[in-house]
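Postdoc handover notes: sequence design on the structure in folder B. Input tokens:
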């Protein structure tokens, strides 16, 4: 049975960076809805064209679309040792859909990690990432909207997870190595 982890936190908290490190160290499969959507945009699919407008404005793409993408990717990886959900779920509907999809496989969310980063640090990180990666949603205006979406929708799913088990808070202000170490300190004894 797979081991399933949710990486939770605001935009630019370091979810993707840490998910990739943990993926390669432990052999889990990272599922990032942001990466999946950016791949659709890069391919110029109809979905990509529609999603780009929403992403560039810092809004949330519809639940049906991201849930469908996650389900496809889970089905395509039946032998995964476990999944790291990165940037998903972002709404209550997504969290509930994820539980159902996992239940069909006789699985559940085993661990929720919340990456905690100061508001000002997020803004600085996005400015640096904008210069490095050129992401079209790393603008001041889009970031403001993404942070609003996080506050208004995404952060509200934490209580949903807290009633199921502990949500582990990670100090995301530390160096990349330090954050990885904090994650491994929690993960190691559980595996
Ligand atoms: P991310 O790379 O996770 O920051 O995602 C980039 C953008 O993709 C977000 O600002 C949203 O527009 C969209 N997106 C990614 N994941 C989701 C999701 N789970 N639900 C809705 N929209 C999403």
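Designed sequence:
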């Amino acid at each position: 049975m797979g081991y399933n982890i949710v990486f939770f936190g605001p935009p630019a908290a370091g979810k993707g960076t840490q998910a990739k490190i943990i993926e390669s160290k432990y052999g889990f499969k990272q599922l990032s809805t942001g990466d999946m959507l950016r791949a659709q945009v890069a391919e110029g699919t109809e979905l990509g064209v529609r999603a780009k407008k929403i992403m560039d404005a810092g809004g949330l793409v519809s639940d049906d679309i991201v849930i469908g993408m996650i389900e496809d990717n889970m089905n395509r990886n039946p032998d995964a040792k476990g999944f790291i959900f990165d940037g998903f779920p972002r709404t209550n509907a997504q969290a509930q859909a994820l539980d159902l999809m996992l239940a069909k496989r006789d699985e559940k969310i085993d661990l929720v990690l919340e990456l905690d980063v100061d508001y000002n640090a997020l803004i600085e990180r996005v400015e640096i990432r904008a210069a490095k990666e050129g992401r079209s949603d790393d603008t001041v205006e889009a970031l403001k909207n993404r942070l609003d979406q996080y506050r208004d929708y995404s952060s509200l799913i934490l209580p949903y997870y807290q009633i199921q088990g502990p949500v582990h808070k990670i100090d995301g202000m530390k160096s990349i190595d330090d954050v990885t170490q904090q994650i491994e300190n929690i993960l190691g004894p559980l595996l």
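Context for whoever picks this up: The chain has a mean pLDDT of 94. Don't rerun without checking with the PI first.
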